[in-house]
Amino acid sequence: MMPEGLRPAAYEALGMVPGVKVVPHQKDAKGRVGVAITYDDPTLPKGTAGFGGYFIFDPVTYRFLGFRDTRTSGDGAAMKTYTQLSYLDGWAVVDKVKQRP
After folding, report:
1. How far is Cα 80 from Cα 73, in angstroms, rounded to an integer?
2. Domain for residue 64, yes or no?
3. Per-residue burial over 16-45, b = 16 or more CB atoms within 10 Å of its CB, e = otherwise
4. Which of 8, 46, 66, 74 could pair with 78 as two cysteines, CB 3.0-4.6 Å apart?
5. Is-contact 53 85, C-beta < 8 A?
6. Is 38 part of a structural domain of the chain?
């Protein structure tokens, strides 16, 4: 929960961090299209795989929609690349850890 007007300022500050990128037109697992934020570590050597994850937000309200990540498994000729998606359908605030709404 952020006070009115603080959320846009937080995104603006995030955009000033070296390596943070905005990627438009990304879908979450529910098929909703949003704007994604990702991070490519500028200190990694060229050709090195970085974070690879995308936090996807609604392009109008900036509410978090879901997560997109590219993963690999195996090695050599058996290496496979796949995309892992998630989405946030709802949320609630509770008073204690592990308490259910």
Report:
1. 5
2. yes
3. eeeeeeeeeebbbbeeeebbbbbbeeeeee
4. 74
5. no
6. yes
Predicted TM-score (pTM) of this structure: 0.72
Provide the residue count of the chain: 101
**Is 11 domain-assigned?**
yes
Locate tokens 């000033």: which residue?
16
**Number of domain units in the chain:** 1
| Predicted confidence (pLDDT) per residue in 21-71, tens digit | 889 999 999 999 999 988 887 787 776 666 678 999 998 888 889 999 888
Note whether residue 58 is domain-resident.
Answer: yes
Residue with tokens 């936090």: 55
Identify the sign of the CA torsion 1, 41, 28, 72. negative
Residue 15, strand partner residues: none
- Can you say whether residue 95 is alpha, beta or left, with left for phi > 0 and alpha for psi between -120 and 50 degrees? alpha
